[in-house]
Request: fold
Amino acid sequence: MAITFGFYNSVGGDRVYNAVQMSSFFDGVLTDGVFEAIGTSFVVRQSSGMNVIIGAGRAWFDHTWTVNDADLVLGIGDAHPTLLRIDVAVIDVDASNAVRSNSVKIIAGTPASSPVPPDLIDTEEKHQYSLAQIYVGAGVTSIYTADITNTVGTYLCPFVTVPMAGGGGGGAAVLETQVFS
Reply:
């Protein structure tokens, strides 16, 4: 076991910190997830035609942050004429040297008579977190509210929690505001 420390100003290049070292300061303070009280927590809702709207929100996954500060409209691919499909809206975190960015996008499912959501990527360098599953019926030309199942706040895409201080327990802290007169 080694002792690490930081952060100090560099003198002649003797202090160099990477993004994970900077972000790891939040380990034990925040858990990975979407912030429940910021924006609309990336809630996915119907738009027009084959589009959905990803609501505003902020997330913390894999030592990185993602902020969507306004409604984001994303297109859903054309429906299959006779088969059904389940697409997934995701936060995509790609730490590979070639990409090094986060995005919000739609992962198309495979058309089938009994569709299942596509497998999301979960590797050392890339992770996808489900915001919503979108049911795409055979031959449809519009996505409606009833076709969207939001998954933020579930095991597929949890809310950020703040661990309890003190006695362990592993639960999330409940923060209270008190007004003193």
